[in-house]
């Protein structure tokens, strides 16, 4: 099997963690009869400097033609002027839109040896292994009308929470499938006591549930879900929710694991290359020092193997190698250790077993 990957290292520690993850991909490919080819492009601040835009058309087209895209991070103090007409994050937004990805998947696992890093007590964290699926294309961030309007000398600001049935159907369908491939539980988070769009989500989810008899569907109001994420996080398997609720809950869930540097993500659509990236930013405070934690990007590569290449065996091998490295005490500085990015990557490579 041949797969073509576009690498978008971006800014700050992005290039450091992407080159670490590429070493893992190459090692897995060598074991699984997989031939990988790569091309590398600019995105974010480095693209603004070199090309005057945070994402060039050439780069977007290369991503659209690829089998998968691996991104590091974008942004940094150099491009932080809020008044600037172009900003690094515009590259990310344009990429997500150009790829048509509508589901952002953020798995959160708590590693037994890292419970000290979490703000929650160890007994709460036992068995936390959840996946938040956030809708990316609809809701308050895009609904129309949107804007400021002057009426009778007063200013009115409007955002509209809007969803079409097809937008809800495609992400719920994916979420039921994900729940089926995991522990068989799907939690729809909404605000159906107040919002009409939430009532449509609930209706479609309830109808769809009959097509997935192995999956148990529960519906939870977003305020209750926010509490349960810290009071009983291990009770969740797959959580699916609309764009803004997902934005908030994914950050809340990320804190459970205790380190941003560990967490991967995938953004998926239908018949479009998946986009894989760690959830952390460009970490300008440690960029260029070779000490960034590569595990969030390495685990993103595991998600690529699983969701874009259907290589579950490769995905598991990477995840287990990460688990073993952590269990055996390998730590970068953000986790209280002293390993460099390259040494942590070596530790994972040494533990890859098929
Ligand atoms: P950040 O995630 O870059 O850093 C927050 C803290 O976590 C820093 O102390 C950093 O050193 C540490 N950290 C993050 N990733 C790490 C890793 N892999 N290993 C070790 N330590 C790590 O978030 P911050 O500081 O808010 O943003 C910095 C820049 O990144 C900004 O320009 C921001 O706009 C951008 N950003 C980009 C994102 C993306 O590309 N998806 C996401 C979030 C922020
Ligand atoms: Mg956020």
TrEMBL record:
Residues binding Mg(2+): 223, 247, 251
Superkingdom classification of source: Bacteria
Enzyme class, UniProt record, top EC level: oxidoreductase
EC number: 1.1.1.85
Important for catalysis, annotated site positions: 141, 191
Cofactor: how and how many bound: Binds 1 Mg(2+) or Mn(2+) ion per subunit.
This protein's record includes keyword Secreted: no
InterPro entries in the cross-refs: IsoCit/isopropylmalate_DH_CS (IPR019818), IsoPropMal-DH-like_dom (IPR024084), Isopropylmalate_DH (IPR004429)
Single GO cellular component term: cytosol
GO annotation terms (biological process): L-leucine biosynthetic process
Residue stretches making up the Isopropylmalate dehydrogenase-like domain: 4-348
Pathways involved: Amino-acid biosynthesis; L-leucine biosynthesis; L-leucine from 3-methyl-2-oxobutanoate: step 3/4
SMART domains cross-referenced by the UniProt entry: Iso_dh
One annotated GO molecular function: NAD binding
Keyword NAD attributed: yes
Binding site for substrate: 96, 106, 134, 223
Cofactor: Mn(2+); Mg(2+)
Reaction it catalyzes: (2R,3S)-3-isopropylmalate + NAD(+) = 4-methyl-2-oxopentanoate + CO2 + NADH
Keyword field: Amino-acid biosynthesis, Branched-chain amino acid biosynthesis, Cytoplasm, Leucine biosynthesis, Magnesium, Manganese, Metal-binding, NAD, Oxidoreductase
Subcellular localization: Cytoplasm
Residues noted as binding NAD(+) in the record, renumbered to the chain: 76-89, 281-293
Subunit structure: Homodimer.
Function: Catalyzes the oxidation of 3-carboxy-2-hydroxy-4-methylpentanoate (3-isopropylmalate) to 3-carboxy-4-methyl-2-oxopentanoate. The product decarboxylates to 4-methyl-2 oxopentanoate.
PANTHER family: 3-ISOPROPYLMALATE DEHYDROGENASE
Family under the similarity heading: Belongs to the isocitrate and isopropylmalate dehydrogenases family. LeuB type 1 subfamily.
Name under which the protein is recorded: 3-isopropylmalate dehydrogenase
């Amino acid at each position: 099997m041949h797969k073509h990957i576009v690498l978008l290292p971006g800014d700050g520690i992005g290039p450091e963690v992407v080159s670490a993850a590429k070493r893992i991909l190459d090692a897995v490919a060598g074991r699984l009869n997989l031939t990988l080819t790569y091309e590398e492009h600019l995105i974010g601040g480095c693209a603004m400097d070199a090309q005057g835009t945070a994402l060039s058309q050439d780069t977007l087209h290369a991503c659209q033609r690829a089998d998968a895209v691996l991104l590091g991070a974008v942004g940094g103090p150099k491009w932080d002027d809020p008044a600037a007409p172009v900003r690094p994050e515009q590259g990310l937004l344009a990429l997500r839109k150009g790829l048509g990805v509508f589901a952002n998947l953020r798995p959160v696992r708590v590693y037994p040896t890292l419970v000290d890093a979490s703000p929650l007590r160890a007994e709460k964290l036992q068995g936390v292994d959840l996946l938040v699926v956030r809708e990316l294309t609809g809701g308050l961030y895009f609904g129309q009308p949107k804007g400021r309007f002057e009426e009778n000398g007063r200013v009115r600001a409007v955002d509209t929470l809007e969803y079409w049935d097809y937008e809800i159907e495609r992400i719920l369908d994916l979420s039921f499938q994900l729940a089926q491939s995991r522990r068989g539980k799907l939690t729809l988070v909404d605000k159906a006591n107040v919002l009409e769009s939430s009532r449509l989500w609930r209706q479609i989810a309830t109808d769809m549930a009959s097509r997935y008899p192995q999956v148990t569907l529960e519906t939870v109001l977003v305020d209750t879900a926010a509490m349960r994420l810290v009071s009983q996080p291990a009770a969740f398997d797959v959580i699916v929710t609309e764009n803004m609720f997902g934005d908030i809950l994914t950050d809340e869930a990320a804190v459970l694991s205790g380190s941003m540097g560990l967490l991967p993500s995938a953004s998926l659509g239908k018949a479009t290359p998946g986009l894989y990236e760690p959830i952390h930013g460009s970490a300008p405070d440690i960029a260029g020092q070779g000490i960034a934690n590569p595990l969030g990007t390495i685990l993103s590569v595991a998600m690529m193997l699983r969701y874009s290449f259907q290589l579950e065996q490769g995905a598991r091998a990477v995840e287990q190698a990460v688990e073993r490295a952590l269990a055996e005490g390998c730590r970068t500085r953000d986790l209280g250790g002293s390993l460099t990015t390259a040494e942590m990557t070596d530790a994972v490579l040494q533990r890859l077993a098929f």
